[in-house]
């Protein structure tokens, strides 16, 4: 199931009606939209990856507002979320996000795209290498390739496993949002991989788990203090 959840960047090719409530056994208690909103709020308030990214966005002049920049929607297919560059909005697929841990990963992944959109002139639609770079960074820094996630995918024990996972996840994400061949996607990822894999902003390091993310957040908060000295 995790392998099927390709967290797409920047474009859900077809966005359905915004905020459409889901139906099901628990709909009498919470709609899909209400559950999505509650999980999003918890992620924004407690997840160290997300808290660092929110601070970095604000520091870069792109402060994030929950009501303006996040939208819980029903989505087609297995896509979990996306960053819509045309509206600077993160779309969360309320019918596909299964639990709080999944919400944490999706929000982190898409905020990395939003951060890249804020700090650089990313040609999302015209240069597949730009998309590939952001997908490499998102897979590398969001926890998508954490050991626990890879164990659930039955992928582990390989030499340079983290790099292999990042490359594979980036290619899958590109293919989820671009009508191009796998060979073209692989070529784009290979061309940018070294530089983009080693670009750890705003974390300063690869945050392999929440403890690493907390340390990275602390370091980011103290960054201006170091510079002033």
Commentary on this structure:
This is Mitochondrial inner membrane protease ATP23. It is an enzyme of class 3 (hydrolase). Keywords: Hydrolase, Metal-binding, Metalloprotease, Protease. InterPro entries: Peptidase_M76_ATP23. This protein has helices spanning 32-46, 48-59, 66-69, 100-119, 128-141, 147-152, 161-177, 182-197, 210-221, 223-228, and strands spanning 15-18, 70-75, 81-84, 89-93. With 229 residues, it is of the alpha+beta class. It folds into two domains: 32-111, no CATH class; 122-209. It has a four-stranded mixed sheet with strand order 1-2-4-3. Helix 1 (32-46) packs across helix 4 (100-119), helix 5 packs across helix 8 (182-197) and helix 7 crosses helix 8. The protein is globular.
Q: Ranges with pLDDT <50 over ≥5 residues?
A: 1-11, 16-28
- Please tell me what the overall shape is: globular
Total tally of structural domains: 2
| Spatial sequence of strands, sheet with the most strands | 1-2-4-3
Describe the largest sheet.
Answer: 4 strands, mixed
Mean pLDDT: 84
How many β-strands, per DSSP? 4
Q: Roughly what percent helix?
A: 40-55%
Secondary-structure element sequence?
EHHHEEEHHHHHHH
In DSSP terms, counting alpha (H) and pi (I) runs of 4 or more, how many helices?
10
Gap from first CA to last CA: 49 Å
- The helix-and-strand class reads alpha+beta
Strand content bin: 5-15%
Rg computed from alpha carbons, rounded to a whole number of angstroms: 17 Å
Family: Belongs to the peptidase M76 family.
Keywords: Hydrolase, Metal-binding, Metalloprotease, Protease
Protein name: Mitochondrial inner membrane protease ATP23
Pfam families: Peptidase_M76
């Amino acid at each position: 199931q995790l392998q099927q959840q390709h967290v797409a960047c920047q474009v859900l090719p077809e966005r359905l009606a915004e905020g459409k409530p889901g139906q099901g056994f628990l709909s009498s208690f919470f709609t899909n939209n209400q559950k999505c909103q509650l999980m999003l709020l918890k992620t924004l308030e407690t997840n160290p990856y997300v808290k660092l990214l929110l601070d970095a966005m604000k520091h870069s002049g792109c402060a994030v507002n929950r009501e303006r920049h996040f939208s819980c929607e029903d989505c087609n297919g297995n896509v979990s979320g996306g960053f819509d560059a045309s509206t600077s909005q993160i779309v969360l697929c309320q019918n596909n996000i299964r639990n709080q841990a999944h919400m944490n990963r999706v929000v982190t992944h898409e905020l990395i795209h939003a951060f890249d959109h804020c700090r650089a002139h990313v040609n999302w639609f015209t240069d597949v290498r730009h998309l590939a770079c952001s997908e490499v960074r998102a897979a590398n820094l969001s926890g998508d390739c954490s050991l626990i996630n890879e164990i659930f995918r039955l992928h582990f024990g390989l030499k340079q496993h983290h790099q292999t996972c990042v490359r594979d996840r980036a290619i899958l994400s590109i293919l989820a949002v671009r009508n191009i061949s796998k060979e073209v996607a692989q070529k784009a990822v290979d061309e940018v991989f070294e530089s983009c894999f080693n670009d750890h902003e705003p974390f300063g390091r690869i945050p392999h788990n929440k403890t690493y993310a907390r340390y990275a957040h602390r370091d980011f908060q103290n960054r201006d203090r170091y510079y002033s000295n």
